[in-house]
């Protein structure tokens, strides 16, 4: 295992590396960078308070040099026990996971973990709003999938002949295309407004 | 600087070290350990979905050895931009910070950061429930302080002759003693039930 999502680690915004070569209309930002920028815009304009949780790390060794910052010298990536983003919007608890795929025809369910699904089910049970943001990088299309619509596709994979992925067409039918806005690059609150208010 | 809160890092639950010598009636657990156990109990009994956010870490260098897990070999503690705990309870967004002090007479305001106060003010503005959990370790008493009650004490410190701490007596008057429960060691939902439902 490398990083829990299977990708090599790259420090956000610091070394975008190959991302610039993907030809996004929105200047080669990753989905995570776009969502972070969106959340900052929501916060600055007092629309919502939604943050990405820090990457969970198991710290094994720390050095405390004199007169300088503590240095973590040995640590490992841990698998997250919840989704990556949560917060509050219009009195409602908001909770979601975001995934980008380079696949052209389907979203592989292996991108999501069982405990994240369990978490999203709990959130809905307690009255929160939960969803997935899925970007198909090759089309540069980003969809909002209500968690309630996602669960049946998740659950069916464990049945006989269950499918391990969701076709792109299903995503476009069950999901909502998230509009791009210059400052809210992944303007998902527009979908929440439409669905819940 | 060491850890943002000024303390040396200790891996929760792994090496409790000196904590066991503090003579808590609740078996020498730190406040963080008690709250984590409480949140796990709430989750297991389906009462609430509240988690501690991971410690924010700035990752600088990662090694990817063949056939084994990625190792972070250089990283630094970052200051959190929000509070440590959030989640959902009875349809409400819940957001709080927890601090333990060894001080016998007062709670030093330096334990909290300006951006955490700004965050708590935003949370309340958007309809969430925000508070502080403050433990006076020497008395083994843990209090729930509504954020709204805390703000005036925070704000006055910047005025002329402002006090940089809150007296213990004020905490006991403005706050609510959190009951200890065998499985919910810091049973703060009992206070939320009383105040909001």
UniProtKB/TrEMBL annotation, chains A, B:
The record marks 99 as: Transition state stabilizer. Gene3D superfamilies: 3.40.1350.10. InterPro entries: Resolv_RecU, Restrct_endonuc-II-like, tRNA_endonuc-like_dom_sf. The keyword Acetylation does not apply. Binds 1 Mg(2+) ion per subunit. It catalyses: Endonucleolytic cleavage at a junction such as a reciprocal single-stranded crossover between two homologous DNA duplexes (Holliday junction). Mg(2+) binds at residues 82, 84, 97, 116. Residues 1-25 are annotated as: Disordered. It is found in: Cytoplasm. Its cofactor is Mg(2+). Residues 7-25 have a biased composition (Polar residues). Belongs to the RecU family. Endonuclease that resolves Holliday junction intermediates in genetic recombination. Cleaves mobile four-strand junctions by introducing symmetrical nicks in paired strands. Promotes annealing of linear ssDNA with homologous dsDNA. Required for DNA repair, homologous recombination and chromosome segregation. This is Holliday junction resolvase RecU. It comes from Virgibacillus kekensis. The gene is recU.
